[in-house]
Amino acid sequence: MNHLIGNIKNVPGVIGVAFFKDDGTLSAYDFPDAYDKKLLNQVGLKFQPIKEILPEDEGDIVYLCWEFEDLQGFYYPVEGGWVNIISSFDLPMPVLSLTMTAVANKLPGLLDGSANTDEPPAKSGETVPLDRIHQLEKIFSLYLGPATPVLFKRIAQQLGFALDQVPPDKLKNILDTMMAKVPESKKAEAEEQLKPHYSEKR
């Protein structure tokens, strides 16, 4: 869970994150010291009835937002529980939405105990070198134009990673998603250009 909390905390403007189970039990958190565990447990009990009345649509994350004096708060329901976030007002919502999509795919298994270990943080040498990512962006830009770097960044964030933290075993997911965006008339050519990168381990 710490890995998922770290992904959310990496979004500019996010100040605190807490994960709760369906019954309102606090599961994990990273909040400023002023928000101690006892207070967050009370938050869980207060928010629990909301989970009962909000619809859950797997295709889209329904969330609630509150504005305070200089902060805003978010409530994101997921299967098996929900996430509370506090942030400043300069929060980039597109980045948060992409990040929460990735979190919503991974968090339920952790909340219900079916996955009880965090993905270990990538060790040195266990990420795809950034220069290789840039090389791939150049290849795809031939077929997708100047928006290619933005697409790469968004797809990586959907998987829960920054571009400089992509594990080698996740690179194929990114390449497949990018390839799906290439026009059919150019796919064969693009696939030929990318063959070395599909076969390469690193």
Key phrases:
single chain, 202 residues, alpha+beta, Beta-Lactamase, 2 domains, five-stranded antiparallel beta sheet, 7 helices, 5 strands, elongated
Number of domains: 2
Architecture (CATH level 2) name of the largest domain: 2-Layer Sandwich
**Radius of gyration, whole Å:** 19 Å
CATH C-level name of the largest domain: Alpha Beta
The tally of beta strands, per DSSP, is 5
Outline, from the CA principal axes?
elongated
**Could you describe the largest sheet, including whether it forms a barrel?**
5 strands, antiparallel
**What's the pLDDT, averaged over the residues?**
81
Multimeric state = single chain
Q: Would you mind describing this structure in some detail?
A:
Strand 4 (72-78) and strand 5 (81-87) form a beta hairpin. The longest helix is centred in the middle third of the chain and has 19 residues, at 93-111. The protein is built from seven helices and five strands, in the order αββαβββααααα. The protein has helices at 2-9, 37-53, 93-111, 130-144, 148-158, 168-179, 184-199; strands spanning 14-21, 26-30, 64-67, 72-78, 81-87. The protein folds into two domains: 2-111, 2-Layer Sandwich (Beta-Lactamase); 130-199. It has a five-stranded antiparallel beta sheet with strand order 2-1-5-4-3. The chain has 202 residues and is an alpha+beta fold.
